[in-house]
Design goal:
alpha/beta; 15 strands; globular; binds guanosine-5'-triphosphate; binds magnesium ion
């Protein structure tokens, strides 16, 4: 009888199978495992960076061992790797454990479908990339991204692209009361660039991303990959064109990829999404992102929805009780934006 070549299934004890090793309650602890940072996922193959910034920094390709079952391994995850972790051409390592995640960004396919998908792990900032035109901005989508970020405990940066095509002022005015930072970029002619144009200004964007792990999300065609290419010199992310008739992008990027920023920090470029399902989000979690309102809402009746039609909502009283007109206007704007994003939690995007 031919000897069976060991594969990743040997790392899991299979009770009842004759000839298998003794059963152990504990999984093997893989004491020799090294840590890898997941920078890309493509059809069951994972690209990882090992010993990032260390003397042996290398790119390793791996697959999932059966130990971790169906748990999804996503971009930004830190994992334990065993097997051939040399990173040599054709080598393949195995992911045996996902290290604890500090944050996960999830979305639901849509609100009626509670199936959750973790998009990325360990990111601390969500960059909502929105084109000012082509495709037209949709505030509901922005609101929902804001909710998803706050729910995940992430900061939000609103990046308004294509400022060469439309005025960013109205969107700015809508999001500043929420406490969301806003940056703008535009395309300008550049005779020195191979494409004939450049994206600018990048200083504010760079400053907002420096040293952090940021995820770019937004509809297809808003310019996520274009911006990533402008920020990361050797990124070479493919970019697409927006259809003249439908105003939609072509879903050029098909998987998430993490790229290191020259000044430190990471950006994760993701494929365009049509909507951002929020069935998994709880109101309490969202409220926590609004310190001032959270405190006031402690006085709300039990089970208060905090929406416009909520009886005796303490947030309304808070606006009423403003000491002067200026405060009243600011509080009213803040409450209105909070209610807008809260309401965006339900219904279609
Ligand atoms: N006018 C103008 N066009 C831009 C700007 N930024 C990007 N574009 C164009 O928008 C189109 C789509 O850009 P992509 O970077 O592929 O968009 P994406 O968000 O990555 O799209 P998906 O990968 O499909 O999600 C390309 O033709 C870009 O050249 C900008 O600031 N102004
Ligand atoms: Mg893209
Ligand atoms: Zn309330």
């Amino acid at each position: 009888m031919a000897r069976r070549v060991p594969d990743e299934s040997d790392f899991r004890s299979r009770p009842g199978k004759r000839g298998s090793r003794p059963r152990t309650k504990q999984r093997p602890d893989h004491a020799d495992a090294v840590t890898g940072f997941v920078t890309g996922v493509d059809r069951g193959r994972y690209t990882l960076l090992v010993d990032a910034d260390g003397p042996d920094e290398r790119v390793v390709v791996a697959m999932k061992a059966r130990d971790i079952g169906r748990t999804r391994v996503v971009c930004g995850d830190r994992v334990d790797l065993v097997g051939d972790v040399s990173g040599d051409d054709g080598s393949l390592a195995r992911i045996v454990r996902i290290q604890e995640r500090s944050a996960v960004l999830r979305r639901t396919a849509d609100d009626t479908d509670p199936y959750e998908r973790v998009i990325v792990a360990n990111a601390d900032q969500l960059v909502v990339v929105t084109a000012l035109a082509e495709p037209e901005p949709r505030t509901r989508m922005i609101d929902r991204c804001v909710v998803a970020a706050y729910d995940a405990g992430m900061d939000v940066l609103l990046c308004l692209t294509k400022a060469d095509l439309a005025d960013p002022a109205p969107l700015r005015a809508l999001y500043e009361p929420l406490g969301v930072s806003v940056v703008e970029t535009r395309r300008v002619p550049d005779g020195l660039a191979a494409s004939g144009w450049a994206i600018e200004p990048l200083d504010a964007v760079r400053a907002a991303l420096a040293g952090r792990a940021s995820v770019f999300v937004g509809h297809s065609g808003v310019g996520k990959s274009t911006l990533v290419n402008a920020l990361v010199p050797d990124a070479r992310r493919a970019t697409g064109v927006v259809n003249d008739h439908t105003g939609r992008g072509r879903h050029t990027s098909t998987s998430a990829v993490a790229l290191r920023l020259p000044g430190g920090g990471w950006v994760i470029d993701t494929p365009g999404v049509r909507s951002f399902g929020l069935a998994h989000v709880e109101v309490g979690n969202l409220l926590r992102a609004f310190d001032d309102l959270d405190e006031v809402a402690e006085a709300c009746p039990r089970g208060c929805t905090h929406l416009d039609d909520a009886p005796d909502c303490a947030l309304d009283e808070w606006v009423e009780a403003s000491p002067d007109d200026e405060t009243r206007a600011a509080r009213a704007a803040r409450l209105e934006s909070f209610r807008r994003v809260l309401a965006s939690r339900t219904g279609a995007a």
